[in-house]
Amino acid sequence: GSGQADMYAGLQELGVANGEDLKETLTNCTEPLKAIEQFQTENGVLLPSLQYALPFLDLHGTPRLEFHQSVFDELREKLLERVSAIALEGKVEERYKKLEDLLEKSFSLVKMPSIQPVVMCVMKHLPKVPEKKLKLVMADKDLYKACAVEVKRQIWQDNQALFGDEVSPLLKQYILEKENILFSNDISFLQNFFSPSPKTRRQGEVVQKLTQMIGKNVKLYDMLLMSLHDLEISEICTVDPCHKFTWCLDACIREKFVDNKRARELQGFLDGVKKGQEQVLGDLSMILCDPFAINTLALSTIRHLQDLIGQDTLPRESPDLLLLLRMLSLGQGAWDMIDSQVFKEPKMEAELITRFLPLLMSFVVDDHTFTVDQKLPSEEKGPIPYPSAIPEAFTKFLQENRIACEIGLYYILHITKQRNKNAFLRLLPALVETFSDLAFSDIFLHLLTGNLTLLSDEFALEEFCTSLFDGFFLTACSRKENVHRHVLRLLLHLHHKVAPAKLESLQKALEPTKQSGEAVKELYNQLSEKLELRKPSPAEVTETPSMELPLPTVPTPASA
Question: Which of 62, 90, 171, 313 has the highest local Cβ count within 10 Å?
Fold first, then answer.
């Protein structure tokens, strides 16, 4: 069969006899035993000392095959070791010459299972396998599969489609893993999407595999970046010429804060981009557009604004704050830069610094004023209400300016985490329409639902629920499946805190439609089951006997 043929594949070309030859010899001879003996002598291991040893093994019942196999395995191991050694010794061109000669001699046996490992090993150590041999490997599924990643890289380099086929399932797996975290049923303000350290994330299976696939091959790295771009994943940038920049940013992400020393260092990198090297900006912006980087920059911006209030300083007077905005803006502009291939820093809108950030600071001041007012002895005028109006400029900024929107959303996460219900309800209406619907993005909703668990007691209040659900979530549920999922996640977690009447209307409003995906239906069913368990059962309701008469105990269906 073909399996037999494979076993001896390529031996004839090397002038080595194989099973077919033996068959032919035996078919055409008069004394088969003599023919076999001669075949053994001609093709056996040619060592004089073996002449006596082999019959001795025969006496012990060791089959010749077993003996030859063990000699063969031993020799193969030695050969593999030798190949790896050749790859490291002597002058570069000499060692590669030796390996190329070896490949030339052995390649015809590449399909022979017992020899294949040796051929593969030779190819693995050749930085440039001859084109013709790569093509033969590529054309044969089994050979391609058996190849070392070092050889595959050489194949992928000129076959983007093949590389795409290999990378694509990994990227899909990566996206799926990230989505599972964003939509996880465990909602908490302590543990969220951004909790794992950079080191932990680097040890993730997908990142490890991709890093291994790319090795030091810049061309493959660029191809990977392009396929990431097609899928709009902005998180995997594993190898990079901007190593030091990444390293420094990595440390900030670990601390979830950009301190002054590191800010100076990062600024040095940005200012150091020389004329003619602008393309590096493309790489820096890719690194900065990683959600973990944006998260760190946005959190640091909010912290900086608070410090400025304490110091009575305006945003435009703080170089550190301006640097954070510059990096945010580079990160946000990454895809545009890659798409247009125009490598220059996006222009920062002056209004962001002179109007928007002071507005955010005024909200913080409003909070302080309100708190102080509450503590003052009130005269006839009665308690001062919390300011409820939102400046129109704030809403406009959130709709039209990406960076303002990102910082605005992080400010809202910040006040939620501080359990500042008043500020939260005041600004919430501004989130219904935001730049490219950022307020309905998975990362924001994941973080918001986590922080809302800190306000869980407010869910008993009609006003709070109406603002949060009717005023915000439900405005997008029907057009955005992900929002539907996040609301259901939140209710699964907090349903016991919500006033029953409100819960009932929410359950109606959130019922899946024909268009809803499996995830929504599944969550809705889980929620319905929980609510079912909360309702008092009909039996309990009817079984409230009046106090005077002792009723005869009749087993009710519920307890029977």
Answer: 171
Structure tokens at 317: 């007077």
The pLDDT, as a whole number, for residue 103 is: 87
| Domain annotation covers residue 496 | yes
Residues 70 and 143 in one domain: yes
Q: Within 10 Å of residue 557's Cβ, how many Cβ atoms? A: 7
- DSSP reduced 3-state for 510: coil
Residue 133 CB-half CA count within 13 A: 23
Residue given tokens 């109007």 in the structure block: 355
Angle at which helices 402-417 and 442-452 pack, to 10 degrees?
20
H-type alpha helices, 376-480? 392-400, 402-417, 421-427, 442-452, 462-465, 474-477
Q: 430-468 in b/e burial notation, b at 16+ Cβ within 10 A?
A: bbbebbebbbbbbbbbbbbbbbbbebeebbeeeebbebb
Residue 142 and residue 209 in one domain: no
Length of the chain: 560
Domain end, chosen from 106, 126, 158, is at 158
Cα separations in angstroms, 216 against 130, 141, 202, 428, 554: 20, 25, 17, 48, 81
Q: Residues 432, 472: contact at Cβ < 8 Å? A: yes
Examine residue 480 and state whether it is found in any structural domain, yes or no. Answer: yes
What is the predicted pLDDT for the residue at 555? 54
Q: Look at residue 48 in the predicted model and tell me its pLDDT.
A: 66
367: tokens are: 């909070």
Q: Are residues 85 and 154 in the same domain?
A: yes
- Report the C-alpha gap between 416 and 454 in whole angstroms: 8
Chain CA centroid to CA 25, Å: 62
The closest of 455, 437, 447 to 489, measured between CA atoms, is: 447
The b-or-e profile of 517-556 (16+ CB within 10 A means b, else e) is eebbeebbeebeeebeeeeeeeeeeeeeeeeeeeeeeeee
d(CA 523, CA 244): 44
Same-domain pairing of 51 and 154: yes
Q: Among the three residues 99, 134, 158, which one is the final residue of a domain in this structure?
A: 158
Measured N-to-C along each axis, helices 92-106 and 116-124 cross at an angle, to the nearest 10 degrees, of: 150
Q: Examine residue 10 and state whether it is found in any structural domain, yes or no.
A: no
Domains in the chain, number: 3
Instruction: Identify the CA nearest to 388 among candidates 363, 414, 358.
Output: 363
Residue 96 lies in a domain: yes
**Residue 549 near residue 557, CB atoms below 8 Å:** no
Closest CA to 248 of 158, 180, 318, 327: 327
Query: Where in the sequence is the domain holding 217, given as residue range(s)?
Result: 173-231
Other CB atoms within 10 A of residue 331 CB: 24
Residues with pLDDT less than 70, the chain: 1-15, 43-52, 225-226, 228-241, 379-381, 536-560
Neighbours of 514 (CB within 10 A): 4
Per-residue pLDDT, 554: 52
Question: What are the backbone dihedrals phi and psi of residue 503, each rounded to the nearest 5 degrees, phi first?
Answer: -60, -40
CA-wise closest residue to 266 among 348, 306, 225, 326? 326
If asked whether residues 189 and 107 sit together in one domain, one would say no
Structure confidence at residue 492 (pLDDT): 95
